From TrEMBL, chain A:
It comes from Drosophila kikkawai (Fruit fly). Manganese or magnesium. Binds 1 divalent metal ion per monomer in the absence of substrate. May bind a second metal ion after substrate binding. A divalent metal cation binds at D73, E74, D184. Its EC number is 3.1.26.4. GO terms for biological process: DNA replication, removal of RNA primer; mismatch repair. Catalytic subunit of RNase HII, an endonuclease that specifically degrades the RNA of RNA:DNA hybrids. Participates in DNA replication, possibly by mediating the removal of lagging-strand Okazaki fragment RNA primers during DNA replication. Mediates the excision of single ribonucleotides from DNA:RNA duplexes. This is Ribonuclease. Keywords: Endonuclease, Hydrolase, Metal-binding, Nuclease. GO terms for molecular function: metal ion binding; RNA binding; RNA-DNA hybrid ribonuclease activity. InterPro entries: RNase_H2_suA, RNase_HII/HIII, RNase_HII/HIII_dom, RNase_HII_hlx-loop-hlx_cap_dom, RNaseH-like_sf, RNaseH_sf.
TrEMBL record, chain B:
It comes from Drosophila kikkawai. It comes from the Eukaryota. GO terms for biological process: RNA catabolic process. Pfam families: RNase_H2_suC (PF08615). This is Ribonuclease H2 subunit C. The gene is LOC108078316. One of its GO terms (cellular component) is ribonuclease H2 complex. InterPro entries: RNase_H2_suC.
Length: 344, 155
């Protein structure tokens, strides 16, 4: 008996040793800071992917003194899979040269490799780190679904605007001396601009379509957002326990055949999809309507109160045709949602 | 028609304790569910809404919940019927599949409160107790005495 215990203790020690080793590895790779392209993946992987994550780079000292411009853009608005990422970047008004040297242009015109290089440069090259700062918010697909499915629905536009304003606020709180703000938008710019001006009346705010190809500072923000989104998908670990080779679930756009196949093949009858999927997208809804169990939620808030006073005919309603008296259920039970159950 | 509940004190004590969720949705299906991976993994405490409040989501719908105990003096049982007879008059037999003393109650995007139908319905436990409790002669006499007193006080 003591032998067996010995073995068990040994086993335990072994697993403890292994755990320590893993911990050491983790310590070696500092996951709390993004200092290069390489450290982006481990940082994202160390966060819970069902929640939002915000990351702010260090604020270069010049950005606290000199008036700065700040660009805002997003990545991954349309896809049915993965997070949407909001990004900001900022630099002093007279540091345009650094942005040009980095090669910041319309992020959608750049290849993935080129974006990765620029992102790495922003974080490693002295000429960039000394004057350019950035921040991103990873809005998890779980948050997107639950926001859009709230009792008082919160549209993706609201989620987006809140995120953008939150990031700008965090930059202010971190000490960035903001003078001008440039925002890329897909929707109508006027309304957005008005809302931003109300919140930040002291800044010169420009909201424009395709701002990421017009203003280099927006391009930089766009690159940070896009690179972050791509990495978030690459390092996605399914709490559901799914393992997908190379995380190959396609672009996430509903038209992509790889994404379509992923959606078709990973339906859980009860829970629908893993939470990489945005349930509130019609693509996801339609797929579930066909293949998963039907599910109906209590939505009593949508019911309108029906009250039109007591009807005169009420007095004739107490009996059935055969003359049997129908007894109305006691209000005491009715109000407490109690009733007789004969069938189950 | 008679319904047989097929269990006794012995297998009640032996049966396994179940992990139960009270969901604000009707699921039109029967069978096993990957609760651990697809649901329990995502339960989080949300102290900003009050102590013990939990959050999660079901098919993207936000849920707010809490751990609840079965009312004092009660036990939760899950009974299953292998095949339901076609005619209403035939006898039925329900088998015990598990017991529970605790479960997680979920609301759709609403902090659990006394306004919830479940909590209101729990008054049944008190009603049932009042109705089924034996009344002793002493209690009866005390009640009569109290009533007399009351009528004296309010002429």
């Amino acid at each position: 008996m003591s032998d067996r215990e010995d073995i068990e203790i040994k086993k335990e020690n072994q697993t403890i040793d292994e755990e320590i080793k893993e911990d050491e590895d983790e310590d070696f790779k500092d996951t709390t800071k993004i200092t290069s392209l390489k450290s982006l993946g481990p940082f994202i992987a160390s966060k819970e992917n069902s929640r939002n994550t915000v990351y702010l780079s260090d604020v270069p000292d010049v950005c606290k003194d000199k008036p700065c411009m700040l660009g805002v853009d997003e990545a991954g608005r349309g896809p049915v899979l993965g997070p949407m990422v909001y990004g900001i970047s900022y630099c002093p008004l007279d540091s345009k040269k650094a942005l040009e040297d980095l090669g910041c242009a319309d992020s959608k015109q750049l290849t993935e490799e080129k974006r990765d290089v620029i992102f790495n440069d922003i974080n490693t090259k002295e000429y960039a780190t000394s004057c350019i700062g950035w921040a991103v918010e990873i809005i998890s697909p779980n948050t997107i679904s639950t926001s859009m499915y709230r009792r008082s629905k919160c549209s993706l536009n609201e989620v987006s605007m809140d995120s953008a304003m939150g990031l700008i606020q965090q930059a202010i709180d971190a000490g960035v001396n903001i003078a001008e703000v440039y925002v890329d938008t897909v929707g109508p710019p006027e309304k957005y601009q008005e809302k931003l001006l109300k919140r930040f009346p002291n800044f010169k705010i420009t909201v424009a379509k395709k701002a990421d190809s017009t203003y280099p500072i927006v391009s930089a923000a766009s690159i940070c957002a896009k690179v972050t989104r791509d990495h978030a998908l690459k390092v996605w670990k399914f709490p559901e326990g799914l393992v997908i080779k190379d995380n190959a679930f396609g672009s996430g756009y509903p038209g992509d055949p790889v994404t379509k196949r992923f959606l078709a093949e990973h339906i859980d009858l009860v829970f629908g999809f893993p939470r990489l999927v945005r349930f509130s997208w019609s693509t996801a809804e339609n797929a579930l309507a066909d293949k998963a169990y039907d599910m109906e939620f209590d939505e009593p808030d949508t019911e309108k109160p029906k009250y039109a006073g007591t009807k005169l005919t009420k007095f004739f309603k107490g009996t059935t045709k055969s003359g049997e008296v129908i007894r109305e259920e006691s209000r005491f039970f009715k109000q407490r949602h109690l009733g007789n159950v004969m069938d189950f | 028609m008679s319904i047989t509940l097929d269990f006794n004190g012995k297998n009640l004590a032996k049966s396994k304790s179940l992990d139960l969720h009270y969901l604000p949705a009707k699921v039109d299906g029967d069978g096993e569910a990957n609760v651990e991976e697809y649901f329990n993994n995502y339960t989080r405490e949300a102290a900003e809404f009050g102590t013990g409040v939990l959050t999660n989501a079901l098919r993207g719908y936000p849920l707010m919940g809490e751990r609840l105990k079965v009312p004092e003096g009660y036990r939760g049982l899950v009974l299953q019927e292998t095949d339901k007879p076609l005619s209403e008059s035939s006898d039925r037999q329900l088998r015990l599949t598990g017991v529970f003393d605790e479960f997680t109650y979920w609301n759709y995007d609403k902090v659990p409160s006394n306004g919830d139908a479940y909590r209101q319905a729990l008054v049944m436990a008190d009603v049932a107790q009042a109705l089924s409790q034996p009344i002793s002669e002493q209690d009866l006499e005390a009640e009569i005495a109290r009533n007399k007193e009351n009528t004296k006080e309010s002429p």
